[in-house]
UniProtKB/TrEMBL annotation:
Basic residues: bias regions: 137-146
Pfam families in alphabetical order: DDE_Tnp_1
Residue ranges of coiled coil: none
GO molecular function: DNA binding; transposase activity
Protein's UniProt name: Transposase [Lactobacillus plantarum JDM1]
Amino acid sequence: MIADQVPSYRTICRFRISDELATLTDESLGNLTVFLEQQGLINDVSFIDGTKILADANKYSFVWKKNTIRFDKSNRDQLVALLGELHEAKVIGEVPAGSEVTPEMLDAIIGVVEDKLIALDETVKATEKVSPNPAKQQRRKLKSKKSKLDERCEKMREHEQQQATYGKWRNSYSKTDHDATFMRVKEDPMQNGQLKPAYNLQIATNNQFVTGFDIFQNPTDTRTFPIFLKHLKAHQALEKIIVADAGYGSESNYRYCEDELEKHTVLVPYGTMLKENSRKWKSDDRKVMNWDYYDKDDYFIDPKGVRFNFNAYRERTDKYGFTRQFKEYVAEKYDENHQLIPAALTAKENLRRISVNEAWEYFKAKERDLLSAPETGSIYAQRKIDVEPVFGRMKAYLHFNRFSVRGLDKVKKEAGIVVMALNILKLTAIGRPTQQKAMNKNPRKTKIRFCVGFYDLGASYVTAPFLAS
């Protein structure tokens, strides 16, 4: 088909990071989904899961956000002390207390120091024969302070650049691939839990076909869930039933699905769902869910007989900006005879308080009911045998454990090639038995029919080994 011509390695590398490839993989994935629906090979369920793939970066090239914050604070403290020395030497004016030091401010101060050095140079030339020369001593000290000022200003710019590289939610990045984040990966030869630069690959599957994918820099699956659902919905790849494991179960994700995906059924268990069914959990007197609740007067009674009355509504906002609503209950301090109840006090003799998140309890009850129902429970039971084998084929058969390009945009394009390869492998595996039976009757007819399926996917060519099969 190619007249014995072999494409060069450079040609392949240019192709796998080209914009045309991104368009080709997106269109092919969409056309494949349509083709599979027409053939009845997929249904209305999206199984979602993720895995960490190593980045093409050195594993010891880490930069940590906490260290950047600590170094930046130390650098600013030294800058404040240095500016104080310059003020005492009457080189610059007083910097107001509490004012924020910026690189632009330092550039202006460095300009003032340079003007002062030029004036000192002229003074030294005019007093060359004076020994010892006070102007020379003053110039020497001022040059030293200017050198330190330049170094601190450069450090401040470096820290600002690092903060911009981290972005809003990341806590680390690699020096050799700024888009890669250090994560815990399953490929850990030293068995010490060492963090390595990687990307979080999220996929949606149906009958072991990948119907959608995306790359994330966040190692936590919980944070990727709503963004990935938006991506699938925008590409019309989100099915009516959404299935994922407990790593995606959180109040923020449940609330997003409740508000934005009303027509979809979400089968995502929460982290403590299995534990709550255990005997140990149900017999734990510290769990509020095991206490007696009286809806009419809105109060709890714990196993010790202490009554907790409603006190106030509280709000808590996490670092991601998500706000949770709580109802606070306070223990009754005195009994009917106005005697102090010791069980109502903490070890430090403060009143005991509990907080109840009604929205979280509602979402938990909803998921328990869905996963306990025979129909939806059987759908969730298919999760492991639908999405996990895809990752197994990717890492075991294709040996794809590490990206070979750097940068988020290029990594997405390479992931698209892998996803399409997995889909072609699955499609050929399904069609091989039928093809073999039909070839015994009419080999030519069978070959054309099989190729038409790929032309329907929008591909402009097929490989020679495929045609030969």
